[in-house]
Amino acid sequence: MKTALSPCPAFIGGEWRTISGNGVNPVYNPSTGAVIAETPLGTAKHVDEAVQAAHDAFPGWWETPPIDRARILFRFRALVEENFEDIVRCNTREHGKTLVESRGDVKRGMEMIEFACGIPSLLMGESLENVAKGIDCDTIRQPLGVCVGITPFNFPAMVPLWMYPVALACGNTFVLKPSEKVPLTAIKIVGLLEKAGLPKGVLNIVHGGREVVDALLTHPKVRAISFVGSTPIARHVFEVGTKHGKRVQSNGGAKNYVFLMPDADVENSSRGLIEAAFGCAGERCMAGSTAVVIGDASKTVIPALLEATRAIKVGPTDRELQPNMGPVISKQHRERVEQLIAAGANEGAKISVDGRGAKHADEPNGFFVGATVIDQVDSTMTIAKEEIFGPVLNMMRFDQLDAAIEMANKSPYGNGASIFTRSGKAAREFKHRIKAGMVGINIGVPASVPWFPFNGWDESFFGDLHMQGKEGVQFFTQQKVTTTRWFNYGEGDIWHKEK
Ligand code: NAD
């Protein structure tokens, strides 16, 4: 039986609209393989309408006092909480992650709204009296204007919420282009912001692929661009956006190492590694996709890890009985992941647990890949260099921490790196020397919470100011420094005359 397609409207100037232009992109339920919606691929004309709507809404929104902007965000947060399970199910249905993982995705997004609710304090400037005799100096932060967010498929709730709550709280207006693979969760959440009382045109949604992205990057009325996605596109967004005079923060892909020291706690480290490698079916920019096994850790942690990997059940996530791990995003992506596993074997690695060809009896068309562990990987292999973005854990073995750090530091990426150890000294050395912007000590996925920057380095990030935390507020504002001197009291100044 064919299921009815979910609507996928654009949101321009406060109106939900059906758009058409460059055809559609099918949205799947990865658990079943069924098409559940079609994302319209818009054109430069839709971008122009959305940017114009945001541009027109900007003066009124900027003049709205920060506390009033925050009040809308407080109401928004309450509505997200009220509709939490509905959002979670929509997220799981279009993405495929388990319900527990979807709850995490939405909760992390809610934390960003909570952060943005503190905007009156976050926006405060600085001042200094008597920078010279009788002269004072102060700074204020003002919004930029129209800002843009372009988001990936893997966190349909959280990643858009990394961007627009802070951008709006700072007084900007916004155009969001969600991933064409998972637009429905973003639409649902923005609907709640509308319900919370956001004025028309302050936030807009357009849908599309390259034409829409390029139109956003080059539009003369766009001031800033936030992007999250794969490294080649992140670089493209940064280069084209900055060439056209925009401020750009552009998060790319990653390859994250999890170091296992010989003294690591076996149970906690294998659990942490399993969660890091296979959580969200490995479709995370902070996935711990390579275990770096030092010395005798191979004898203690690896047997526990292999046993736990074999026990992971993959299956459909859109129902009450939950598997340990869900499907990957598409049939093409499943094929790519399986081809990379094969490339590992062809180049001489040893497949210790093979998740290729995984099937689920109830859902023969779901996009399943079983949890996979590949041992004896070396840094020349394709699987060591390419981001696999699936449930595949590479293992590399080293005798010493020094050589392992040296290998990891040659990676072009720099998102996250973790170490499991009982030694404070080893942890300290690792933290000091590892070339990554987010470090975990006995934490498998050291993704930073909203009060800290989401801090990729190198080819995992292009730009200066990261998303989240104070850097997020700085990104979405420009500073004004005022130097003030008053020569004499005004004529009508009673206080002065009385003196
Ligand atoms: P993607 O790069 O394919 O797509 C991201 C966005 O770019 C989408 O909105 C898409 O429509 C747009 N896009 C795709 N191709 C384009 C093109 N040729 N020109 C212009 N725009 C284009 O990424 P994805 O597959 O949706 O997401 C997975 C990637 O995102 C992984 O590499 C992952 O590591 C990365 N990611 C990074 C972070 C981070 O914070 N560093 C967080 C989440 C995901």
Number of domains: 2
Structural class: alpha/beta
Shape: globular
What's the CATH C level of the largest domain? Alpha Beta
Indicate the low-confidence ranges by residue numbers: none
Largest sheet: 7 strands, mixed
CATH third-level topology of the largest domain = Aldehyde Dehydrogenase, Chain A, domain 1
Annotated CATH architecture of the largest domain:
3-Layer(aba) Sandwich
Amino- and carboxy-terminal Cα gap: 89 Å
Bound molecules: nicotinamide-adenine-dinucleotide
Number of helices: 17
Helix content: 25-40%
Considering the protein shown, what is the CATH homologous superfamily of the largest domain? Aldehyde Dehydrogenase, Chain A, domain 1
- Strand proportion, as a percent range, falls in 15-25%
Offer a quick outline of the entry.
This protein is of the alpha/beta class. The chain has helices at 44-63, 66-82, 84-95, 99-116, 119-122, 158-169, 183-195, 210-218, 231-243, 266-278, 297-310, 331-346, 382-385, 401-408, 424-433, 469-475, 494-498, and strands at residues 10-12, 15-17, 24-29, 34-40, 127-132, 135-143, 146-150, 173-177, 203-205, 222-228, 247-251, 256-260, 288-294, 350-353, 372-375, 392-398, 413-414, 416-420, 438-441, 457-458, 461-462, 477-485.
List keywords for this structure.
single chain; 499 residues; alpha/beta; Aldehyde Dehydrogenase, Chain A, domain 1; seven-stranded mixed beta sheet; six-stranded mixed beta sheet; 17 helices; globular
